[in-house]
Design a protein that fits this description.
The structure is a homotrimer of 342-residue chains. By secondary structure, chain A is an alpha/beta fold. Chain A contains six helices and 39 strands. A ten-stranded parallel β-sheet of chain A has the order 8-11-14-17-20-25-28-31-34-37, with no helix packed on it. A nine-stranded parallel β-sheet of chain A has the order 9-12-15-18-23-26-29-32-35, with no helix packed on it. A six-stranded parallel β-sheet of chain A has the order 7-10-13-16-19-24, with no helix packed on it.
Chain lengths: 342, 342, 342
């Protein structure tokens, strides 16, 4: 798999600078770079590496073109252009067809243009559209539906009545459609509240490895168009995540919470239940959100590690902060105090 | 699947108000509601929705009956009554039998009343009781035992010598009986401390999707009767979780810790190792517990997101809280100070 | 499986004290202990249990030997010696061979000395060395390579081009080689940045149940020799974890971060992206690391639960800590203030 740089420029509508005959056979980092491979420069802090790179070619912004010692592809958004070009080097999709070790229920519907890997299970009533790949060992339970050009990772599980749009990627080991955690108290224990809704993932959603997305109690848990989840994210029952929102790894969102569109949520964040987060909210890593966020903006409650002895003293003071405030208040009333003393 | 409201009332011992002839074919939310479907009113804050609901019938408390414009089922605990009625609408259990694609070791014992799904693995010495469903792709390793009327989710794993009681639900992708994280330091690395214990889940336990519960080092890790875990909870080796305790998603409990009965543990909580938490403790979401809790009650260390610039200033002050305290102390000794200056 | 204590002493080079004829058939805790079983005493706080133990024998330090009422194996590092001896009682490895229900691609290479369990998938180009066990349902995708004497847990997934050294243990349900979370912004959504690197686990690495380790963007994500991960740890793309570093459960490390050698990282820790943590750093549980750590030592930002009402008041004060500091500053300038007032 190697492409002349000129062909790449044409195919992706990029401006070629320098020799277009060289073959590009893969990608490389800018430093040190690798002959015959393509790199990119998006972060101005890396501009210093450009002049010594051994890359076969570099995707970069017009302002950087002059400094590039090797052939270049010029793009207004070099990272985006690189993302598109680099996809040339992804391993090819396996050919369509159902692996003989897979089990597809006779009452399921798998398009002949779909690829069903070894030991996959497709239960009754499920459907799989053309261009979709079901990787080894994944399970589509009863009445789940997967749209076209999706990729369901190895050993992932789509529960009953999970409905997935087009071009959705579900990571290996992700579990979509587990029971929502609804319980009613009985005199001698807990009774499960039946979770009768489903999960809907709209077009272009990505769900990372090991994520869990629970089915709704009555209606559906919903991830709107273009939502992207990193690994080990948990979305509880009845949540609705707005279009294009991105959520980094290990974040958990509790039940019935609605997150707006175009939010950027860091890793390890915790968001409470029954909350509303408006559009265009950014949360830094490990931030805790126990109440609504009603205005767009960047929010945080991220702590910062310090030497443990120092932290222990700060923590002791945090724990008696009310006493500190009382001492401050006492000082603020010197006249009264003097009066008292007099 | 539709039931006259009158039959539902009789079957669950609820008081019928209004017309009992209407058929109920499923559930709906109170707002807007849906004809022919059942809703419930448990949260008084939702009482306003009652008067405009389109639901076919509503389960509610006696005090609300008068305000209900549609037929009602009256119950002292409407949420509990709803939970029981709604279970009518869960999809039926698949019929008993072993799917031809499953592998059941000749030295395993599967009750003829159990259902073994596609690509399930039941290894030698394992046993499965009547009424239990093993969903597609789950694995029961050597000498694991599953009691009656359980449901083991798709692609879940029960390791060697995991023992599960009656009516236990294990979510898809949950891993019970992984190696406990015990290591001994050698001069040139780490040596695994063999984890020779098992895991025991007593009756009516629920384990959510993607949870991990590690086997004990010598004895068993134990979840007592009626413990309920949400998704992605981690219970380390040698822990013991008391009866009826409920743990929300993404919480982790470190090794050899004992949690009491009837605790309510929020999501994203972290509990350290070798601790004791007494009965009837409530922990709010994301709370950190590095030491014993010896009295029942509600505990917290939950932070709260604020605009990032504001938070950055607070964090800087937290980090010099000892300096603040010194300044406060200096102010509290004005006479000394004046003496010093004199 | 039972061994005379004398044989155990000889085999592991330990000093025998007392009768060596007794058979040891397993392990037990020190309190109460169990006849015919072996315990150990490593923590001096447990010395009180020694004198009443019912254990058949105890592994302990020379200084404790005198107080031992039962036969003893004397070792400078009793925990390490116990770890080695206890491995005698682990269930035997299943015999080599490929289970008939497994699917091994004709273009894969499985050593005849490897054990391939039921419903395992080994795709084209993958290789498995001698002495390695692939537990039920695990998946080795195209061109993944597993070295000798490894154990890959049930339903674990090794993605394309994951390369694993010798004596590596991958827990059940762990996902190695998921797509790294790289995205480029397009005018109308997100475009995946292809993740073309792999994951390398060097010799003696352990990965716990349910962990996720993402493939690199261009180069490989790397866990060096002897790194040990507990359950549900997340290692993002392009990370490099130094030799012998140990990471407890539920910790997440964001993309392109480098952690040094011999670090001890607690559970529930969050480490940001593109950071450098030097060798020999210890992080207490739930610590948050949003910036580089450049000196070895113990670091913390762990909070501590307190009664919820008390905490609420502390949190309110944290949130107005800048106001507190202003009030303090105002008090520190009494002369100016008096001047202003005059």
């Amino acid at each position: 798999m190697a492409f002349p740089l000129r062909d790449i420029a044409e195919r992706f509508g990029l401006t070629l600078q320098g020799d277009g005959d060289g073959l590009i056979a893969g990608v490389c980092s800018l430093q040190p770079g690798m002959p015959g491979r393509l790199s990119f420069l998006a972060d101005p802090k890396q501009a210093g590496f450009l002049e010594q790179t051994y890359a076969g070619a570099v995707v970069l912004a017009p302002t950087m073109a002059e400094r590039c010692p090797v052939p270049a592809l010029i793009a207004d958004n070099p990272q985006l252009a690189y993302a598109r070009v680099a996809a040339l080097f992804l391993p090819p999709h396996p050919p369509p067809g159902v692996h003989p070790s897979a089990f597809v229920d006779p009452d399921a519907s798998v398009d002949p243009g779909a690829t069903v890997g070894p030991h996959v299970v497709v239960e009754a009533g499920a459907s799989v559209a053309a261009g979709t790949l079901l990787a080894a060992g994944c399970v589509l339970e009863t009445d789940s539906h997967v749209g076209p050009d999706c990729r369901i990772g190895a050993n992932a599980v789509l529960g009953r009545e999970v409905v997935i749009g087009a071009r959705v990627r579900v990571g290996p080991g992700a579990i979509i459609g587990g029971r929502g955690f609804g319980l009613a108290r009985d005199h001698d224990g807990w009774v499960e509240i039946p979770q009768l809704g489903g999960v809907r993932l709209e077009d272009d959603v990505e769900v990372g490895a090991g994520c869990t997305i629970d089915r709704g109690t009555i209606g559906d848990t919903l991830l709107e168009r273009g939502v992207k989840l990193d690994d080990q994210v948990h979305i509880a029952h009845n949540c609705r995540i707005g279009a294009l929102t991105v959520i980094a790894g290990c974040t958990g969102i509790a039940g019935s919470t609605e997150v707006g569109a175009r939010c950027m949520i860091g890793g390890g964040v915790g968001i409470g239940d029954h909350l509303r987060i408006v559009d265009d909210v950014v949360l830094t890593g490990a931030t805790q959100v126990p109440s609504d966020i009603t205005e767009p903006g960047v929010y945080s409650s991220t702590l910062k590690a310090m030497p443990a002895g120092d932290w222990r003293r700060r923590l002791a003071l945090i724990r008696k902060l009310d006493r500190l405030e009382q001492r401050l208040r006492a000082l603020e009333k010197p006249d009264n105090d003097k009066g008292d003393r007099a």
